[in-house]
Each structure stands twice: as structure tokens, then as C-alpha cells.
Amino acid sequence: MSKLILTRHGQSLWNAENRFTGWVDVDLSEQGILEARKSGVLIKNLNINIDMTYTSFLKRAIKTLTVILEENNLELEINTAWEINERHYGSLTGLNKEETKIKIGDKQFKKYRRSWDISPPPMPKDDKNQSLFSSLNASIPQDMIPLTESLKDTYNRVIPFFESTIKPHLQNNKNIIIAAHGNSLRALCKKLLNISDQKINELEIPTGNPLIIEFGQSFEIKDIQYLDKTREKTI
């Protein structure tokens, strides 16, 4: 049997400021570093072998994974993949969430933030936030770089990557950590837990609280649980 540990990065500087972050490459806050360290301790307490790791192109996820590995005294290769980047928030990128809700109304705000297939207006190509994206993005084919995404769009890049690259290792009884983002992990959980388009808006992934999924020999889910019981969310 294999285990998949999903960890949303610790609090970022823009999380702390309540801003739409998306593809902007912001760092962890001090609280975020502490959350990453706690994630590492919780994973260490499992007393299991970790065979492989994956993360996005964004430093808040890369740093979270790095801290987790340090806490576990591991020197595993860190595999980065843009396909598990956070959802691209288009023209909402950088805006304060509360101010945006007041400006566009609660109903439209919820559609942009939590609906399955509605994306915000696209980011203008001359948007100043483009300069704040990860330098690793230079390796992404230009025709695949979005200007906005819905959760469905995020799902459509996360799942093929998971199926082709990560799932075969899990089926080969490898234990894997994925350190990624709220929406890329929501997309993956939608697939793994068979969550409907209508119910996926209810799934919230807390920062810095590892979710461990144990698979059986036929890749059925045998067990799923958050490691920090004081901060767990309904799955």
C-alpha cells in the first residue's frame, strides 16, 4: 500500500494581506514558515518512508516542501511542475478580497472564487503583476500559459499530470509528498474523492495541515485524514 501526503503551503505574505495571489511568486510569512515546520513534524511522527516529492513553480510551495524535508532529515530530489501551480486569478490578481467583494457584490465574488467553471476576467498582458511571476515560468510553452482560470481549468492541467507522472509511482507502492496550493489540491481531491461539480465549492484546504491518503492494492482509498486534528476541515 502507498501513501500520498498533500500539503498546502504555509501562509504566504499575500495570504496574510488577504489578497488574490494566484501565479504571483510571493514568499512565506513568518507564520507560514512555522506552519511548514509543524507540517514537517507531523509527517515525521508518522514514521514512514518518503520516497518522492513534488511541488509547483512557486516559492511558497517550494519553501514549504524544503522545510518539511529539513524537519525529516531528508535530502530527496524536489520535483517541480507548473501543472500543480495555484489557480491563475486573472484580473483579480493582487486585489484585496474584502475590497473586491464590496466592489463587485457577494454573489459575483462567490462565483469567481468558488464556482467550478467560472473564471475571472483575464489578466491584461501588460499587468504589473506579470513581473512578479516565477522565473521558472520561462520553461512553460507560451500557448499553455493562461491569463485566467476557473477551478475546472486548473483541474484540466493538474489531473493529467497526476495520472501520467505521480499515480504510477503510487501504484508502485511509493510514498509521496505533494506540496502545492489550495486550488491545485482541491482539483486533485475532486478527482481522488469523486466530489461533484456542485459540492467542490465546499472543500477548503487549510494551510500547513498535511492530508494523508492511504491507497490499497487496487488504488482504492483505504484511509484519509488530516494530521493536525485541531485544524482539520470536513473532507
Quick overview:
The protein has 235 residues and is α/β, with parallel strands linked by helices. It has helices at residues 13-16, 30-44, 59-71, 97-104, 106-114, 151-171, 182-192, and strands spanning 2-8, 52-55, 78-80, 176-180, 211-215, 221-226.
Structure description:
With 235 residues, this protein is α/β, with parallel strands linked by helices. Helices cover 34% and strands 13% of the residues. It is built from 7 helices and 6 strands. The protein has helices at 13-16, 30-44, 59-71, 97-104, 106-114, 151-171, 182-192; strands at 2-8, 52-55, 78-80, 176-180, 211-215, 221-226. The protein has a 6-stranded mixed beta sheet with strand order 3-2-4-1-5-6. A hairpin with a 5-residue loop joins β5 and β6 (221-226). α4 packs across α5. The longest helix is centred in the C-terminal third of the chain and has 21 residues, at 151-171. The two termini are 21 Å apart.
Largest sheet: 6 strands, mixed
| Neighbour order of strands in the largest sheet | 3-2-4-1-5-6
Helix content: 25-40%
Shape: globular
The Rg value, from CA coordinates, equals 17 Å
User: Which quaternary structure do these chains form?
Assistant: single chain
Mean of all residue-level pLDDT scores? 95
Strand content: 5-15%
Q: Helical element count?
A: 7
**Unreliable spans:** none
What is the H-and-E element order?
Answer: EHHEHEHHHEHEE
**Secondary structure tally: strands:** 6
* Through-space gap between termini: 21 Å
Assign the structural class, choosing from mainly alpha, mainly beta, alpha/beta, alpha+beta, or little secondary structure. Answer: alpha/beta
